[in-house]
Every structure is written in C-alpha cells, then in structure tokens.
Write a structure and sequence with these properties.
By secondary structure, this protein is an alpha/beta fold. It has 14 helices and 20 strands. Helix 3 runs parallel beside helix 4 and helix 7 packs antiparallel against helix 8.
Length: 456
C-alpha cells in the first residue's frame, strides 16, 4: 500500500517570477515533505523588479477549486495569502466555515519590490478583520501589515506588543508579527497567544530584501501546524529555516533576491533553535558553520577515516555536551568525493564534545577540535611543521572508563602539562587509529589542517 502524505493547502496569488506566492508556498511544503495543494485567487504579471498587473480569478472558479480539494484530499491546515478584494475574502471565509479548516492567514498587502497590491483599501482591510481573521488559527503580518490591521503607527517594541494584543482582540487565536522590517540589528518576531507575548530574535542579515521570505514563513508555519506542532515550536523552527533561506538567497534577474528553498543547499545553514535569543550560541554556531564550509573546500578524501570526521566548537564556559556545537552527521567520503549532508547543532556529538571538554578543563581557550585519519606520514608532517603532539594507548584504558576520548585526551594533557595541537592513538582491536587536531577556534583548527594538507 502506498504511503499517504499529509496534505496542506495554499490559497493565494500566482507569482509569474516564481519567487513568492503560490509557487513559494508549494516549495516550502515540499521542504517539509508535505503534499501541497493550491487554489489560485489571482494571477500576477511580475518579475524581480516590479508587479505590472494583477487579475482576479472568477469567484465560481475559486470556489470550485476549494470544493474539489476538500472533497477528496482533506487538508490538515490551510495557508491563505493574497485574496485581492472583499468578495474573495467573503467567499474564502464561508468555505473555511463550511469545512472547519485550520487556517493561517498571511495578510499580503505590499510586494517585496514595493508594489502596492491594491489590498490596503478600507473595504479590503475591514472585510479581512470582519470575516476572515476571527476564523484564523494564526495571522502572520509584518510590521507594516500589522500597523494597517490595527490602524496605528508602529515605531517601537512597545508598539508591536500593543498591536499584537489589538489584532488578537479581532478574534484570531495567535498573532505573529514579523519584525524583519524593523530598524534593528536583530530580526525579532513577536508571538501573542492571548496569554503571553514571546519574542524570537536572530541577527539580521544585512541588505537582504528577499522575495518570497514572508510567503515561505507562513507556509512553513502552516506545515508545522499540520504536523501538530505547537504554535511556539512551529514559529521557532520556521524562523531558523527562513533565516537560512534568506542567507542563501539567490538572484535570477536585476531586482530583489529570491529565498532559497532547496533543502540540500541550506540545510547546514539553518541556525539551531537554541540559538534564538542567545547571541553567544548563535555566534558559536556561525563560526563553526563558516569553517565547515572552508574545511570541505580544502579537505582531501584520503584524510577522512572510515568512521568519518566530526568537528566541534564549544561555548566559552562549556560544561557539558549541551554546550558543544558539532556536526549531526560525520563528514565522509565516496571515492574521492567529500560528503557532508548533516546539520550543525548543539548536543550533536558526544565523541568530539568529550575531547573538547577534556581540553578545556586544562585550558579554557581550547574550544575546538576535529578528528582525521591516522597516517604516519601525517604525523611526520606535523613534526616538521612544529606542531606539538601527544599520544595515548587504548590498551592502557581502565575498565571503569566511560568515555575513551575523555580519558585519552586527559591522559595526554596530564603527561604533557599542556594541551597539544595534535593528540593521536594507534587504535586497538576493532578500534580505528585516529589523529585529533585541537585549537582555540574552528578557524585555527582548519588553518592547522590546511598547513598539513599543503605540506603532504
């Protein structure tokens, strides 16, 4: 029997440039391995520089699309984007009631290229507030759209919090005001569930007006809600993914960039959820991420051990594996090709964390390490380069030891009296010999490896 996928529905406008609207929503659903269905309310003629024309679809055709999808596919959640006018809003609202759908509303009013989509008129906004928002599970306006919905200026964080409460009073169950357009070095989103206001912050990416990021946010949020995530958890994960999409945004024309929705291209560029509201965790993750990219460019496949390579970086005052950022999957090889398809996150590798934490007990500066394949020629090169070295013998490991890496690293440091650049062992029965490179930072570790590579 074929596996049945969760179905999510997007209702909104078609973007002929492919960057936003229905097209972005469907790619976001696919990113989460969901099946996306769509109802087109309007067709636009646009590119990355401008929106030229918008034509609304006939009401009977919009209704027919909705009926056929709900009769057959039973969407678990519905994302609603551009609705064009009051008549479309009233029709969609009636259908939401008919099918008792869980709805996330993205109140699209202005395109990223700055085009007024004719959706700020008093009749449109009043209809949105009267008919649709009271039915919504969540609404996701940006700063400008939130101000229009609440009919007020937003100039401070206090204004945002008050606006969230005012929009909630319309009847929507959850309000998420996206703060990316706010003039600040952090992009902070505010979530109000009727009881508490939560703020979610990540560093803002400079000069990135990215087409489709707002659509992707609401579509991903819809997908996580369809998967039964709580609104707070869904918003947190969505925020990190959208950060990665914006950071990897690409160009297709002469206008705004387009959000990257290819999972393979952004996977390791998605910040950990735990880095939200935590600048130290974010900077630790970001430093490791940048140096993983450098590592993959210089790494020779013959330096990758059978068990693969891990690479980690600890917080300044790390005390446990939870405080060490590392690779969720090891770097491995396929012939001469270097492969890494994992994420970079905290609490990802007990192996590399044990080495780093043992080193930090002696010297708090030694916060980074990686392992590479054991080769005598590599050790010879390390000696010629003047790198300090130490080794341990696995055969001497006591039976009571729980972590070989912690024991071996600590044993070398105890004998040397300091943390060396290189710690190695020659393996044992069923245990692959290994070389570990240790440094103050991921950049220093990669630099040491690069010197080794160049000297081999």
């Amino acid at each position: 029997m074929a596996m049945k996928k969760i179905v999510v529905l997007t209702i909104g406008g078609s973007d002929s440039s492919g960057g936003a609207g229905i097209q972005a929503d469907l790619r976001a659903f696919s990113f989460l391995d969901l099946h996306g269905a769509s109802v087109i309310t309007a067709v636009t003629a646009q590119n990355t520089k401008k929106v030229d024309k918008i034509k609304r679809m006939p009401l009977d055709l919009i209704e027919n699309q909705i009926d056929l999808i709900f009769e057959d596919m039973n969407p678990k959640a519905v994302k609603i984007g551009m609705l064009y006018d009051k008549d479309v809003i009233k029709l969609i609202s009636k259908k939401i009631l008919d099918y008792d759908a869980k709805v996330i509303v993205d109140p699209v009013m202005i395109s990223t290229s700055g085009y007024d989509l004719f959706l700020k008129t008093k009749n449109f906004v009043n209809a949105l507030k009267k008919y649709l928002l009271p039915l919504a599970f969540a609404v996701t306006p940006n700063i400008g759209e939130a101000g229009i919905l609440a009919n007020r200026r937003i100039e401070s964080e206090r204004d945002i919090r008050e606006t969230a409460r005012e929009i909630y009073d319309i009847g929507v169950k959850n309000v998420i005001i996206k703060g990316g357009h706010f003039k600040n070095k952090y992009a902070t989103d505010f979530i109000y569930d009727g009881k508490k206001i939560y703020s979610l912050s990540l560093p803002k990416i400079d000069n990135r007006d990215t087409h489709g990021s707002g659509c992707a946010f609401s579509a991903l949020l819809t997908g996580f809600i369809a998967k039964k995530a709580s609104i707070l958890k869904a918003a947190k994960i969505t925020k990190t993914i959208v950060w990665g999409m914006i950071e990897k945004g690409y160009t297709t024309g002469r206008g705004v960039k387009i959000a990257e929705l290819n999972k393979e291209k952004i996977y390791r560029g998605i910040p950990p959820v735990s880095s939200i509201n935590n600048s130290t965790k974010f900077s630790t993750w970001d430093e490791l991420r940048k140096n993983v990219d450098k590592l993959i460019k210089i790494l020779r496949s013959d330096l990758i051990p059978e068990v693969g390579i891990n690479f980690g970086y600890a917080l300044p005052n790390a005390k446990s594996i939870d405080d060490v950022c590392a690779l969720s999957k090891r770097i491995r090889k396929n012939g001469k090709h270097v492969i890494f398809d994992g994420k970079i996150d905290f609490c990802s590798s007990k192996h590399i964390a044990s080495i780093i934490l043992a080193a930090m007990k002696k010297d708090r500066r030694k916060r980074s390490a990686m392992n590479i394949r054991y080769q005598k020629k590599v050790l010879d090169v390390c000696r010629k380069l003047g790198l300090s070295m130490g080794s341990f013998d696995r055969k001497e490991e006591p039976d009571y030891v729980k972590s070989t890496m912690e024991w071996g690293t600590s044993r070398v440091i105890e004998k040397k009296g300091f943390v060396p650049d290189i710690i190695y062992d020659e393996g044992d029965i069923g245990k692959e010999p290994m070389i570990r490179i240790i440094g103050d930072s991921p950049g220093e570790v990669v630099d040491k490896l690069n010197r080794i590579v160049c000297a081999i």
